[in-house]
Every structure is written in structure tokens, then in C-alpha cells.
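Record 1 of the preview.
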Amino acid sequence: MPQSLPIGPSIVPDAELETNNCAQLVLNAYTISLTTSRHEPKAFDSAIRVWQERNPQAAQGEAARAVASIICKKL
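->
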């Protein structure tokens, strides 16, 4: 029977780092979309799609609240 390798600190995902990465990706998507289309609802939808890709297990409706929070904290 093969032995499993112990999980070291470098292998375990850091939740805070993942949250920060997700927030940065959301802001990038929002900013780029807003810059290119100048249409805020489309930019917000683009940011929501990015958040949903990073959080596929999240409940329906949670994405819009999370994205709004990320954008508001940045402003």
C-alpha cells in the first residue's frame, strides 16, 4: 500500500492569499472592462464572472455582493 506524503505548509493553500488574489483578479476585470467599454453594468458583470470562476461552490447571489464589496473597498 503506497504511503501518502505529508502535506507541508507550502502545499496547503493560504486562504487569505487566495482571497487577495481573487480580489485582484476581480478588480482587474472590472477596471479593464470599464476602461474598454465604459459601460458600468457590463464591467460589473465581467467582475462577477471572474469571482464565480474562483468560487464555483458559492451560493447563487453571493457573487454580486462579494464583487460589490471588493470594488467598494478599493474606491
